UniProtKB/TrEMBL annotation:
This is Cytochrome c oxidase subunit 1. One of its GO terms (molecular function) is cytochrome-c oxidase activity. Gene3D superfamilies: Cytochrome c oxidase-like, subunit I domain (1.20.210.10). It comes from Hydrogenophaga intermedia. It holds the Pfam family COX1. It catalyses: 4 Fe(II)-[cytochrome c] + O2 + 8 H(+)(in) = 4 Fe(III)-[cytochrome c] + 2 H2O + 4 H(+)(out). Its main location: membrane. Pathway: Energy metabolism; oxidative phosphorylation. GO terms for biological process: electron transport coupled proton transport; oxidative phosphorylation; respiratory electron transport chain. InterPro entries: Cyt_c_oxase-like_su1_dom, Cyt_c_oxase-like_su1_sf, Cyt_C_Oxase_1, Cyt_c_Oxase_su1_BS, Cyt_c_oxase_su1_dom, Cyt_c_oxidase_su1_bac.
């Protein structure tokens, strides 16, 4: 038995209490430990981020100058479609599930996720789905080229890759639903004694609400793409006008999924920022309860704004007014969150380590994306802006500067806990400033392109748009390289255990149960649930 207790794991770390921790390839293939599955999710999503990024650089390389340089318009449409699908379903969503797997059990004092084997399955489902998505480029006729929203009637005219795409989306949706059930059951049933819901970290709260959103809307997407499939192969005419169908009905179904989906991709980011800002402002989060209620309000309101994506489809003016005002209303709880973060920083003893830089950077750029969203919510303006580069600028400010920047804040914040070593602060800051500047060089000019009337998803454009496109393309390549630098200079050394050893609590003002376990977090944590004091931040005894 002593041999089992004293064994070393794959990294040579000595974990006395890791009884029967599997080693080698079995540890990963048959992983049931929430930390290992979290790591798998994060590595998978980074891989997909790189794939989606290469497609984006293909788009920007083509748009570097007017005229057709590198790809024909058909391939250009495939690049834009697959870039969107891979980034949303392959990069952003799995990354946040990786964070959830790693942090939720640690933050609520649970020994693991509720359904460990289902957790393994929900990760491994992503691999064939991703291979099918990426592999669609090599199918007859190439990848789907209908835009990431997969609008009919284009989807009804695509080649066989469209079916592969639909199948892949179904599998990824199933994975999301299983992951969500797991998160909800874990949070509701496995909290440590004394950890009431209103004592949970904001990260757990945002994920609890996100998981309910996912369960509500993933079946809606499944319905929309299944109807597309039956239109393609089984003679139905849901979206085919020739048989009495309506292509605009597809948009209603898709955006009923698609708008809550936007919040699925941003709420966990809000949770991460709500953990990082108090730690480096050295103050408690301002207005915790109002943050929880604001998150819930955003989730509920996200179901009544879907048709603001459809102001140009010939909606009656009453409908336009309803969706315009409800969209403006959703800015209120979002504004509450931004106010609370700023109030948390107000008169705090702030220091700007890398996680805090990313969090403050997030607040700045996400707010800009929020304002352009507010502008687009005004129906008469949106009718001018719809399908121009203004919209591209807006949603990249929300999704890249929103989701991705918050993820980087979370990675730098928790990396010492995950790996047991401190990253290099200099490298982290280089990564931050390089990303921040190149991101804005890429996407800020797109506002002007859109205001000047440049439509999106076009492989060619008139001469008057040349300068801003050239600037945007240069910025895009810079931004892509910054993420390669991040992987080589920050992630790889941490995974290899290179660097100064991290203490149990590397950030002195950080709060939460995750800082009560050693760094790196041992294979088994909280086998006996911790008993919490009244504030649920310290372990008694």
């Amino acid at each position: 038995m002593s041999a089992v207790l004293d064994h070393h794991d794959a990294h040579g770390h000595d974990h006395d209490h890791d009884h029967h921790a599997p080693t080698g390839w079995r540890r990963w293939v048959f992983a049931t430990n929430h930390k290992d599955i979290g790591t798998l999710y994060l590595l998978f999503s980074f891989t997909m981020l790189m794939v989606g990024g290469v497609l984006a650089l293909g788009i920007r390389a083509e748009l570097f100058q007017p005229g057709l340089q590198l790809v024909n318009p058909e391939l250009f449409n495939q690049l834009t479609t697959m870039h969107g699908l891979i980034m949303v379903f392959g990069a952003i969503m799995p990354a946040f599930v990786g964070f959830a797997n790693w942090m939720i059990p640690l933050q609520i004092g649970a020994s693991d996720m509720a359904f460990a084997r289902m957790n393994n399955l929900s990760f491994w489902l992503l691999i064939p789905a991703a291979l099918m998505l990426v592999g669609s480029f090599f199918m007859p006729g190439g990848a789907p080229a209908a835009g990431w929203t997969l609008y009919a009637p284009l989807t009804l005219q695509m080649g066989p890759s469209m079916d592969a795409g639909i199948f892949a989306m179904h599998i990824m949706g199933a994975s999301s639903i299983m992951g969500s059930i797991n998160i909800i059951v874990t949070i509701l049933n496995m909290r440590a004694p004394g950890m009431t819901l209103m004592k949970m970290s904001m990260f757990c709260w945002t994920w609890l609400i996100t998981a309910y959103l996912l369960i509500a809307v993933m079946p809606v997407l499944a319905g929309a793409i299944t109807m597309t499939l039956t239109d393609r192969h089984f003679g139905t005419s849901f979206f085919n006008p020739a048989g009495g169908g309506d292509p605009v009905m597809y948009q209603h179904i898709f955006w009923f999924f698609g708008h809550p989906e936007v919040y699925i991709m941003i709420l966990p980011a809000f949770g991460i920022v709500s953990q990082v800002v108090p730690a480096f402002a050295r103050k408690k989060l301002f207005g915790y309860a109002s943050m929880v209620y604001a998150t819930g309000s955003i989730a509920i309101l996200s179901f009544v704004v879907w048709a603001h994506h459809m102001f140009t489809t010939g909606m009656p003016v009453t409908g336009q007014l309803f969706f315009m005002y409800s969209t403006m209303l959703i800015a209120v709880p979002t504004g509450v969150k931004i106010f609370n973060w700023i109030a948390t920083m107000w008169k705090g003893e702030m220091t700007f380590e890398t996680p805090m830089l990313w969090a403050v950077g997030f607040i700045f750029v996400f707010t800009m994306g929020g304002f352009t969203g507010l502008i687009l919510s005004v129906a008469p303006i949106d009718i001018q802006m719809q399908d121009t580069y203004y919209v591209v600028a807006h949603f990249h400010y929300v999704l890249v500067a929103g989701s991705l920047f918050a993820m980087f804040a979370g990675i730098y914040y928790w990396l010492p806990k995950w790996t047991g070593v401190m990253y290099s602060e200099t490298r982290g800051k280089i990564h931050f400033w390089w990303s921040m500047i190149s991101f804005n060089v890429t996407f800020f000019p797109m506002h002007f392109l859109g205001l000047a009337g440049m439509p999106r998803r076009y492989a060619d454009y008139p001469m008057q748009f040349a300068d801003f496109n050239m600037i945007a393309s240069i910025g895009a390549f810079g931004f892509g390289l910054a993420q390669v630098y991040f992987f080589i200079a920050v992630v790889l050394p941490a995974m290899q255990g290179k660097g100064e050893k991290a203490s149990q609590k590397p950030w002195e003002a950080a709060e939460g149960l995750e800082w009560e376990v050693p760094s790196p977090a041992p294979f088994h944590t909280f086998e006996n649930p911790p008993k919490l004091d009244a504030t649920a931040t310290k372990v008694i005894g």
